[in-house]
Specification:
6 helices; elongated; 69% helix; mainly alpha
Length: 172
């Protein structure tokens, strides 16, 4: 379960990081006046934080859904949840890719895009490889064996650490 939990945790981390740690996120709202002016249409820091926060809510739901999948009673149910998780991860990748972050966040944003994309690709491949297994436990065992070193969650964690160091996220 470590692998699926790692992938779910990666999405949940995006959710938590995007939320800016909760109540202290006042700097992410209100001031859109600097957005794009003189910066080639780039988002301001506060607008970028707000976009990450919105994307984070989607990631949080996907993480909760895949956690439920760990208790699936059938392979078909788990397969469906894996495909939904992969689709959400790809959607998140596309959403983050569409952002024009502040210049100092560009590399971390790209790494976050790559991490979400790589996670989606790995989960789709695993879902295809496991759809004919007999039990959900066999699927989970396959995921543990074959996704332990998936690069997507590691890329996501690294990108979020960089964004945190730059002041775009506040949670750990």
């Amino acid at each position: 379960m470590k692998t699926v939990a790692l992938l779910a945790a990666a999405l949940a981390t995006v959710a938590l990081a995007g939320c800016g740690g909760g109540a202290g996120g006042g700097s992410g709202s209100g001031s859109g006046s600097g957005s794009g002016s003189g910066s080639g249409g780039r988002l301001s820091k506060s607008d970028y934080r707000a976009k990450l926060r919105a994307i984070g809510h989607e990631a949080q739901q996907a993480g909760a859904d895949i956690q439920k999948g760990l208790g699936a009673k059938t392979v078909a149910e788990l397969h469906t949840r894996l495909l939904a998780f992969a689709a959400t991860s790809q959607h998140l990748s596309d959403e983050v890719a569409a952002l024009k972050p502040p210049k100092d966040a560009e590399a971390a944003n790209t790494e976050l895009v790559n991490g979400e994309h790589d996670s989606a690709q790995a989960i789709r491949a695993a879902a295809a490889a496991t759809q004919n297994l007999k039990t959900p436990q066999a699927v989970i065992a396959y995921l543990q064996k074959n996704l332990d070193n998936a690069k997507g969650p590691h890329e996501i964690d690294d990108a979020l650490a960089k964004l945190r160091n730059l002041g775009y996220t506040t949670s750990s």
